[in-house]
Each structure stands twice: as structure tokens, then as C-alpha cells.
Amino acid sequence: MNSLQFLLFIPGLLLYNRVASLKCYECDLMGNKSMYSCFDPLDTTHDDVRVTECPDLRHSCLKVKTQFEDGDVFYQRKCGKAKYKDSCKNLHVNGTNYTLAVELCSCRTDLCNIAVPVPVSSTRTALLAAVLWGFLRSVQT
């Protein structure tokens, strides 16, 4: 591969995850209080944990942790509709007779909702730096 081909390859590499269908882990605890496979750490070998290919209008993977006032915790992992930034947000939902603590984590790479996301921009920057460093080393030799 010559230098020009290599340099043209880099943008394609960085944009790949925007073109390919996103894959996310999907599971929830609703309706089955004895199922802990969706909890942290995620048990990816459990039958209730699925890898799903997100529909075209779903651009992120989500991990939602909801804690009820009585201490019960509900986890859900799924594809997300919006193009959320890679982040986690803590929210408080106040109802008439209850308050919920919700942690919403979103990410935009395949199977990233296994844990708290690392920002994609940092990942891309590190990848680009490694590729460019390797390229510059090969040119100097």
C-alpha cells in the first residue's frame, strides 16, 4: 500500500462505525426479579442477554440503571433512538408518591453498553495517533 492509499484509508476507518449497523447488548430485568444477568457486570453468556443489530434510526447503545426508593434496582440495555454523546447522566424522576434515581449511559460503538462507555472521540484520537505513528515510522525507515 503506498502512502496516498494509506492516508485515504484513515478517514474510512474513522467513519466505519457510522456506516455499519450498530450492535448492542439487549436485556432487562422487568417482570423477572430473579434474573440478574442484566446487572453489572453484564453476564454475556446468559440466555437472557442478546446481541441485537439496531434498526437504521437507532444510533446509540444504552445502559439504564433505575434505583427505586425501596432499594430495588432495574437494569436495561438496548439500542437508543437519538445520537447521544458517549456519556453517563444521573437523573432523578419525581412522581406523585415516589422518586427514582436513574443513571443513563450511552455510547456509539458495537457492544459498548457492556459497561460505562469510554468516549469515542478519545478512542478515535488514540487510534489515529497509533496509525499515524506507525505510518511515520515506516516512512522514516
UniProtKB/TrEMBL annotation:
Q: Does the keyword Signal apply?
A: yes
Q: What range does the record give for the signal peptide?
A: 1-21
Q: Name one GO biological process term.
A: sleep
- A Pfam family in this protein? QVR
The protein's UniProt keywords, in alphabetical order, are: Glycoprotein, Signal
Q: Which domain of life is it from?
A: Eukaryota
Protein name (Swiss-Prot/TrEMBL): Uncharacterized protein LOC111126834
Protein species of origin: Crassostrea virginica (Eastern oyster)
